[in-house]
Amino acid sequence: MFWKATERSKRVSYAIRDIVVEATKLEKQGRKILYLNIGDPLKYDFRTPKHLWEAVFKNKKKSESYAPSEGIAEAREAIANDFKKKGMQVDSEQIMLGNGCSELIWFAMSCIANACDNILIPRPSYPVYPAALNYFDIGAKFYDLDEENAWQPDIESIRKNIDERTKAIVVINPNNPTGANYSKKTLKEIINIAAEHNLIIFSDEIYDMLLLDETEKHYCMGSLAKDVPVLVTNGLSKNFLATGFRMGWIAPNEFLLENSDIMDAIFRVGRARLCAVHPFQYAIKPALEGSKDHLVEAIKKLRERRDYAMQRFEEIDGLSCVKPNAAFYAFPNIELPIEDDKEFALSLLKEKGVCVVHGSGFGQEPETKHFRIVLLPPIEVLEEAFNKIEEFIKERFS
Ligand SMILES: Cc1ncc(COP(=O)(O)O)c(C=O)c1O
Questions:
Q1: C-alpha 208: how far from its chain's center?
Q2: Which residues neighbour 301 within 8 Å (Cβ) at sequence distance 6 or greater?
Q3: Are 99 and 246 in contact (CB under 8 A)?
Q4: Is 248 in the pocket of ligand 1 (CB under 6 A)?
Q5: 177 with 364: CB under 8 angstroms?
Q6: Correct CATH for 8-47+293-397 of 1.10.443.10, 3.90.1150.10, 3.80.30.20, 2.40.128.280
């Protein structure tokens, strides 16, 4: 007898970590691997701000038990105040904490759409979205991000892909994997389309404080969309360099609350998983209300690393890259005669020990080829990686 895993589970994949399986095999054989695949600042020279850890330890006794399913009150109040500062009104009682935004993305997708419905997600996309939709058997429809227009969402592509079963549109802003921060004009166009077609907007804003250029401004979707239902997710992982804390949250705008029972459904699903990890919930209030000095240093490092990477992309024949102005990713275009960017990424890994994620792992416009590289490592590491990428391309293609 062979006990087969379900079809449902086979529909789930996560390219960012799947490639690590190959990298680990090589590492076991004694090869040195430069990991440029995972968007985790803590794997490089970034540290979680001290005052977040202090708050966790200070509240140790209180947090040995389960927490309320929706999260502790002081954290939810701090989050509500933070949204108010960004221009979105939300009552703290309507906010839910999760084990990272990831958990809340799964909850929300399952509460927004039935199996016969579909949700529009960007292409390229952060892989948790297609994974969750596939798992729940919800249709994933893609709209393109336009490389020619600094990776802003292609508004025509959004329009073209909506049908009568489309329930929602996912907007990831700032974006993973492209590093784009969206303009107010683009966001307003998305809001208008959502209004026309009665779509919910699910706005993933987990990188909203990581803007790499002073000219950039981030607009919270909930501050712009007043007559369209919106859910916004955010968390400690990226802005507060605390991926290991697993703290994320989700909040509805007033229009969603007044016109839908989806937030109640998210709370209901949340109760069935008991609660988010309790001790780290105490870091949320000090994070949102305390010093943000860590951002000054983090952004300085990221800007230098981004600028270095951009210089190397210009020098290497066969690669071009739109300059990322937020988050910590670059998504270069491979302008070389290759069949498949997965094969490119795997060969780069096997031959040179550089681990990047193939563009097809994020979904992308057919016929285009990319890879995603993180801008998190110190310049010496990036330099070694870029030297190896350059060697690899020269050996193969010149
Ligand atoms: C766009 C986006 N959303 C959500 C997440 C997951 O965040 P969390 O650590 O809060 O689960 C990530 C992580 O890389 C991400 O890039």
A1: 11
A2: 45, 46
A3: yes
A4: yes
A5: no
A6: 3.90.1150.10
CA trace torsion 230, 122, 213, 385 (10° rounding): 140
Q: Report which ligand 1 atom has the smallest distance to the Cα of 102.
A: 11
Find out whether the beta carbon of 286 lies less than 6 Å from any atom of ligand 1.
no
- If you measure from the C-alpha of residue 2 to the centroid of ligand 1, how many angstroms do you get, rounded to a whole number? 35
Bridging pattern class, strands 230-235 and 247-252: antiparallel
Distances (CA, A) of 312 to 43, 323, 330: 23, 12, 12
Tell me if 172 CB under 6 Å of ligand 1: yes
**How far is the centre of ligand 1, averaged over its atoms, from the C-alpha of 227 (Å)?**
27
| Helix, strand, or coil (residue 129) | helix
Are 8-47+293-397 and 51-289 the same fold in CATH?
no
Tokens of 331: 């998504």
Please report, for the chain, the start and end positions of each structural domain, with discontinuous segments joined by +: 8-47+293-397, 51-289
Regarding the domain delimited by 51-289, which CATH topology (the fold level of the hierarchy) does it fall under?
Aspartate Aminotransferase; domain 2 (3.40.640)
Residue 153 and residue 79: Cα distance in Å, rounded? Answer: 28
Classify residue 24 as exposed, middle or buried by CB count within 10 Å of its CB (0-12, 13-18, 19+). Answer: exposed
Given a contact cutoff of 8 angstroms between Cβ atoms, the answer to whether 216 and 181 are in contact is yes
| Measured distance CA(44)–CA(376) in Å, rounded | 7
For ligand 1, whether the C-beta of 212 sits within 6 Å is no
Residues 6+ positions from 244 with CB-CB distance below 8 Å? 42, 48
Ligand 1 pocket test target in 17, 170, 237 with most atoms within 8 Å of CB: 237
Question: What is the per-residue pLDDT for 20?
Answer: 82
Question: Which segments in the chain show pLDDT lower than 70?
Answer: none
Q: Read out DSSP for 11-35?
A: T---HHHHHHHHHHHHHHTT---EE
Each residue of 242-291: pLDDT tens digit? 999 999 999 999 999 999 999 999 999 999 999 999 999 999 999 999 99
Q: Which of 104, 125, 126 to mutate to test the pocket of ligand 1 (most atoms within 8 A of CB)?
A: 126
Give the torsion sign (CA, 129, 132, 135, 138). Answer: negative
What is the position in ligand 1's atom list of the atom closest to the CA of 235? 10
